[in-house]
Amino acid sequence: MKSFAVTAYDPDAPTGSGFWHWAVINIPASVTELPIGAGGDHGGGLPQGALQLPNDARLKRFIGAAPPAGHGPHWYYFVVHALDVEKIGIDPNATPVLLGFTMLGHTLGRAVLVATGEIK
Hints:
Blueprint lengths: L2 E8 L8 E10 L22 E2 L21 E10 L12 H8 L3 E11 L3
Antiparallel strand pairs: 1-2, 1-4, 2-3, 4-5
InterPro entries: PEBP, PEBP-like_sf, YbhB_YbcL/LppC-like
Protein name: YbhB/YbcL family Raf kinase inhibitor-like protein
Organism: Paenibacillus albilobatus
């Protein structure tokens, strides 16, 4: 393993294709945790070399869960991807979907945390 990527996705967002809340690439393999606030504007809490890609709102930051009121529960998938390359080699303005396509041949393993959220 040479690096990690982290993604956050809501398949239940009322968009027809879900909503990517966050994508971070090029996290060094030596990193074992990300500090609170690592997904803030400008990625100040991220390890050196790591980059946030634009989410589906085209912001390079984490956008927290905010399902529409009355829409029912949303499932949020937070995934850590272990990769066989130090740098995934995509443009820093690429979409999380392109990241997923690019990681396909470089993923050694994944850890998935699923959370739910609902506003009634």
